[in-house]
Amino acid sequence: MRRSPFSFIIKKSALPLALLLAGAMPGFIASQESKPQEKSFTLDNGLKVFLYERHTLPILNVVAAVNAGSKNETEETSGLAHLLEHYILFRGTEVRSGSEISRDIRRHGAYFNAHTGQDLATFEISLPSDYVDFALQNQKEILFNLKFVQAEIDSEKDVIFEEISQIEDDPFRFASALVYQNLFKGHPYQKPIYGKKESLKAITLKQLEDFYKTYFHPANCALAVVGDFAIKDMEDKVRTVFGAINREPFAPPKFEKAVLAEKAIEIEQELDVQEAYLVIGMLGPDYNSSDQFAMDVLTEVLGRGIRPLLNVALRGDRDLINGVSMSYITLKYGGASVVYFTLEPKNLNAAKRQAVQYLRQRTRSENYAKGDVYGEAQMYAFDYLESAKNQIRFSIQQAQEEGLTLASSLAMHLILSEGAASVNYLENIGKISTSDLRKVAAKYLSPGGYVVVSIVPKKK
User: Where are the beta strands (DSSP E) in 117-184?
Assistant: First the structure.
């Protein structure tokens, strides 16, 4: 099954929580189990490994993450990482053809997928735990024994061209792509994950092979295994299967942090739609910033949950919007907070003004908790802060039950983390106060530098 990697661009629902939950690892796991069966280590060839034993279901989840995404492309090779992800997932290796791999996946009752983002690519397999040997060997083979064939590259290009066309026909996905390309202008994150049709057409077999040889080294990868196994047995198997890969010298490139644009950018596009869509993007905390906890809560308060404050602010007496949602993703060299509105075209300009005004001014002084108001007003005040914390706790508990989400989070954490001490994610969320929300709003929402994209119906 081909699944869009757009979850790395928009996180409109509570799941997948891959990036959010990754910030909780491994401290979150340790806080939930009295005697956690987990182990992390690094093989001699540089491959980082995290094992987490759980026996709730006889299922094994194996996720490999590679520190190579759209940030590692050039303007001429935009889309190359996504093309390579497709090729790895659906084409052949030096050992088996693509059809043979698909046959073996089906024969073992496995779920098999991959995703590309700005920072990295992940390759995942979930299957009955009896087939552990197949899972490990399969992941090793597709990642480190790829065989390139021009005709198969061309076939995957055609698939991606169709995906790009689908994005251009979807108002929120199209607007979000424009937001990211402009929010990170001048930074490697500016390049679209799917790539551009013109650059994809020109990508050669040699360029694809060179990119693969450059970044697909054990020392540039991480492996997470979550499921029904014994830690010691799994460690032995991982060392046997992946430890045999030769170590080659590798130093991953470093990038500067994304910086705020000097002025706002406004874009309006016409699509074949009935209502209008308004998307506003702002720079947010990066993956290793301690501000991420307050931003997670603020995102829940403003654009998610039971009673999002942006909905209250823009509906009010004027009823300017039909719906609102908000996402926040953390990347290694920057973050992005994005707000999504649906509304009537006639309300677009008024909603745009009111939304920007609220984000820039009100969020840094808003009353988020009952304790922020006094007297009888406390009896009627809605506690946005506590409601957001409860929703995050619930979402984390849900994600914890999904072994594949957990494995993805761990693999990505091994790549994205800069080696800071383990943190207890829920404990940090619990400590967030109104003061923290106001500070993070003042730091990230108030300065401006917004990217505002409006999607409107085509003129007749």
Answer: 121-128
